[in-house]
Specification:
alpha+beta; Outer membrane efflux proteins (OEP); 11 helices; about 65% helix
């Protein structure tokens, strides 16, 4: 049963490289439609867009209408001795319309400017969420490819060791080899079998990680094709990339917006000392029934237009306290901005080194694979002429498959580092995903 499961897993890995395999861009499209984290970021962005009309509303006229009707039941008692109390019942109605237009309210104007900053900040946050999604999808994608490679390498190594084990048994039976060679081959075979099982389990785990992002079973994905090429960073200087990151990093831009908002918050709280001036107008209609006192009742129409000035004098020190609080928050925002700039510089340097060292590592491992292949062939020939043992062949095989595995991992790490470098500089987008997808086998 175990061997059947392993064979099935290997077959599914091989099918993943066939027609119909999804490339990185197609998987990203699925993630954009299904990833819960990105959907939450989109919802947050949509909510933040409403800050602008809310801030603008503080500068526009406000109008209200009110109406009431009431039944009045009162009793009039005269102070004259023996006079009877007189009940008095009548209706009264009122309708009022009022309009107010702010003329001078500095706090409202500053709040509108703050709303603009919040909208800009939300735009950067949504872009950052997309960058994060691209990196998470790419990491999950290439983790699956590496896991598939490990399954394939383990299967191929197991096949080769199995042939070596069979040969060692035959040689022992005819007396041309000792039992030691058989035991060594058997131990290697058992070990690689365990490694193959672990590789298959790891592959299933990596598929589940992608499933969490796209909300569906991981589709067959395309492996790296012959079009894959090592491309050095452009521009070539690390310091240039750092300068770009300090200006364009989304984390830095978000913190700049936070600092700007905090600075305007200081202005807004200081403006609480200023007077306010509004243009106001109202129109009202009231009507009252006659009641027992006689008379025809009355209707009154009243129109008012004018200006309303308010000058704050003293509020118990609350305004000064809020100003001090805002100044402290501004200092915190400035320090957070500096921390974001330093983090952006560090991430950019690490990603740049990851790309440049990745290129060198891939080239070195390509040479190592070729050398290991030549060594294996020479060792096999030496075994045939009696100058090498079966253990030597097993060691050469293990070295070759280790070099192939390391080469595959180095290629994927190079691609991920190049994407991280673009992200650190605030330039990662779907164009980069398209570029990587061109390296994949269709």
């Amino acid at each position: 049963m175990i061997r059947a499961g392993i064979a099935s897993a290997i077959a599914s890995c091989l099918l993943a490289t066939g027609a119909g395999a999804a490339d990185l861009l197609q998987v990203l499209r699925q993630a954009q439609a299904a990833d819960a984290t990105y959907a939450a970021a989109r919802a947050s962005w949509q909510a933040a867009q409403e800050k602008l009309p809310q801030g603008l509303a503080l500068l526009l006229p406000s109008a209200s209408i009110s109406a009431n009707t009431q039944y009045n039941d009162r009793t009039i008692e005269f102070r004259t001795a023996g006079a009877a109390s007189v009940p008095d019942r009548f209706n009264s109605n009122a309708l009022s319309v009022s309009v107010s237009q702010p003329l001078y309210r500095p706090q409202n104007k500053i709040q509108y400017e703050q709303a603009k900053v919040q909208v800009t900040q939300s735009d950067h946050q949504l872009s950052l969420a997309l960058q994060d999604l691209i990196l998470r999808v790419a990491q999950a994608y290439f983790d699956i490819l590496l896991a598939q490679d490990n399954v394939e390498f383990a299967g191929a190594q197991k096949l080769a060791i199995g042939e070596q084990l069979a040969q060692a048994k035959r040689n022992f039976e005819v007396g041309t080899a000792t039992i030691t060679d058989t035991h060594e081959a058997q131990a290697r075979y058992d070990l690689v079998t365990a490694q193959e099982i672990a590789a298959i389990n790891d592959l299933e785990s990596k598929k589940r990680a992608l499933q969490q992002i796209i909300g569906a079973l991981a589709p067959p994905i395309a492996p790296l094709g012959a079009s894959f090429a090592l491309v050095a960073p452009e521009p070539a200087g690390m310091d240039t990339w750092v300068e770009i990151a300090l200006d364009n990093s989304l984390q830095v831009q978000i913190q700049r917006a936070v600092e700007e908002f905090a600075a305007k918050e200081v202005e807004r709280n200081r403006a609480a000392h200023h007077p306010t001036l509004d243009a106001v107008g109202s129109y009202s209609q009231t009507g009252t029934g006659s009641g027992i006192q006689g008379g025809p009742g009355n209707d009154t129409n009243t129109g008012v237009i004018g200006f309303q000035l308010a000058l704050p004098l003293y509020q118990g020190g609350a305004v000064n306290s809020r100003v001090r609080e805002a100044l402290a928050n501004l200092e915190r925002a400035r320090q957070d901005l500096e921390a974001a700039r330093r983090t952006a510089a560090l991430n950019t340097r690490q990603a740049f080194l990851g790309v440049t060292s990745g290129i060198a590592q891939v080239k070195a491992l390509q040479s190592a694979v070729m050398s290991s292949q030549s060594q294996l062939e020479s060792t096999r020939l030496g075994q045939e002429v009696g100058v090498r043992t079966g253990v030597d062949v097993l060691n050469a095989q293990q070295q070759l498959y280790s070099a192939r595995r390391d080469l595959a991992q180095a290629r994927y790490n190079y691609i991920l580092s190049s994407l991280r470098l673009r992200a650190a500089a605030g330039q990662l987008g779907e164009d980069d995903v398209v570029r990587v997808s061109r390296w994949l086998a269709r």
